[in-house]
Amino acid sequence: MVTIDSLHGVNTKTIEQLSKLGIHTIDDMLFHLPLRYEDRTTIKQLAELEVGDNTMVEGTIQACEVKSSKKRSLVCMFEDDTGTIMLRFFHFYPSQREKLKPGTKLRCFGEVRQGYHCLEIVHPQYELVDYSNSTPDLAEHLTPIYPSNSKLNQTVFHSLIDQIFAKYDIIDYIPENLRTEFNLLPLLEALQTLHHPTPQIAPKLADDKHPARFRLAFEELLGHHLSMYSLRASSNEHSAACLNNAGILAQALLTQLSFQLTHAQQRVIAEINADLRSINPMQRLLQGDVGSGKTVVAAVSALQAIESGYQVAIMAPTELLSEQHTRTFGQWLEPLGIEFTWLTSSITKKKREQVLATIASGQVSLIIGTHALFQKDVEFAKLGLVVVDEQHRFGVHQRLALRNKGNQDGVYPHQLIMTATPIPRTLAMTAYADLDISVIDELPPGRTPVTTVVMPNTRRDEVIDRIQHVCTDEARQAYWVCPLIEESETLQLQAAEETATKLQESLPNLKVGLVHGRMKAKEKEQVMEAFIAKELHLLVATTVIEVGVDVPNSSLMIIENAERLGLAQLHQLRGRVGRGAVQSYCVLLYQLPLSEVAKSRLGIIRDNHDGFAIAQRDLEIRGPGEVLGTKQKGVMNLRIADVRRDKDLLNDVVEAGKIIFKDYPEQCQALVQRWVKEGLNYGEV
Ligand code: ADP
Ligand code: MG
Fold this sequence. Notes:
Blueprint: H1 12-20, H2 26-30, E1 36-38, E2 54-67, E3 73-79, E4 84-89, H3 94-99, E5 105-114, E6 119-122, E7 125-128, E8 143-145, H4 154-167, H5 176-181, H6 187-195, H7 202-205, H8 211-236, E9 239-240, H9 248-256, H10 263-276, E10 283-288, H11 294-307, E11 311-315, H12 319-333, E12 340-343, H13 349-361, E13 366-369, E14 383-388, H14 396-405, E15 411-412, E16 414-419, H15 425-431, E17 436-440, E18 451-456, H16 460-472, E19 477-481, H17 489-506, E20 512-515, H18 521-532, E21 538-541, E22 554-559, H19 567-574, E23 585-590, H20 596-607, H21 611-622, H22 624-627, H23 650-663, H24 665-675
Parallel strand pairs: 4-6, 9-15, 10-16, 10-17, 11-13, 11-14, 12-13, 14-16, 18-23, 19-21, 19-22, 20-21, 22-23
Antiparallel strand pairs: 1-8, 2-3, 2-5, 3-4, 5-6, 5-7
């Protein structure tokens, strides 16, 4: 990869600014596409100008003076053979006035506006022209205008792009036969068209489906797809812990449960079991809507590993969820005589050392924790299975780090990755090409859909009455969620505390608790346990309860400032109620005024109960980075392609990917490196 500093005229400051725009290499520069173009290829006659034209004109200055009417400005009368216009400068130097003296010939570019007397161009870009030698050349193609920041001038981009086209071989990594098969332009042609279009082509570039843009979007998606696909292939070469056993423990768990597994749960358990018996490590994504019962599936898989003498690590994104898992798994596994432990970053040093010792010695079979599980000093005796819950909260790197942690003499643990974010199939094929996918597409029987209402914050009192009724007359419990909206965390917590205090004042005969992310683990646990034991009626919480929390007696959820949250997040939060057979309610409170878009988004949540439909709508509104929760994590951060707009292309990308991976290994690597900066590290973490 050639870095940008190999080009002429790039100093440290420029490098710094370019890197802020994500431009480090010449490839990055080539794929930094223009926002728009200016036409400096022809000169328009002054008589033909129309208001709104962005155009080049050429003529002679007739007069130049400083006018100080409303606002001081330097004004020049400017004429050619056909007419006269004004050039106006509000900011100018005295020397400029000298330069623009009558008789001077200029070539100007700018936007034509209607002035008081005649047409004018305000602050034109201009150059003095000298016809004594020869007529100066006009641009051959349109002038690209690049996305930039205030510190970087367009001329920098122009110079870089010109140098790259002149000096470097731009290599097309998509072989010609595939270009023909998938109808793709050669790379150089696509890039030249986009950076330097002719005036005839320019209007067509606005079309998203233009072949030049199509070619680049295709290549970008292909690069991302190949990075995941290669990852998959490399893990297929690893050997895995062999978990072939009679399933006695799993059977013992199932007979002890108070419910029957749904068909969907049974099906995915069978899919997982087949993987666990394979000689290669399982890489499976388990998708299932909120409340579909993923935890018990994880427990059955865990027992499969434990019965074969291996350890299992279960990683949850929040401490709260990991605590809850500790309770759930405790209930299920204790009767079976299985030892387990809990590891998060908040336990004391001494306790931590003890816990680490039991993990390293193999004394405990099941380890539940947060990302603390893959810290350096954690050593497993014999890790056979890693379960990652609520995957959307983790990055690819974290998941791979945990996998590699379990690598013992080239034997890797199996991985089960669980998510409640239903990912549309085409997107999953590209973003999660390294994973097989199982779906729990059925909720346990007897659930009643949550009735959702959308209300302005001004109707708070009615909501408080409702809490009173639900918690006393119906002996149910309720959540009140205050999303984090203040800038500072301290203010956020203050807001949550204040809400809790106010609610307690309004509901004197109810017990109100508060839980938030900054509390000590012990405190959080106490509050949650009190809520589970029904000692608290109302739990005020920040969005820490978003993932996984399962208290079936709660039947009312209020979410404040709902308009500020993503649809998937609202759906997750709402999934905390409606876990039993009783009718549950979710109230989405919003601040007035509410924009039309916000209104329709809340409407989507009110009218849909299916996480898949919601995710689909979310994808349309917000884009894949948000839906996958990977925006900050560098996965599928697309520069050119857009999964919504380019979804028709994904099937072809997968097809082409297969061929390139098999027959063109060098090109495959180069494509990954070009498009996914972290790509090559995936194999190493
Ligand atoms: P999620 O998929 O959101 O993680 P959980 O695993 O927390 O869902 O399950 C939600 C609730 O449903 C739990 O209380 C769990 O015990 C219960 N549950 C799971 N499977 C079944 C089933 N087949 N029948 C009835 N209840 C079930
Ligand atoms: Mg869960």
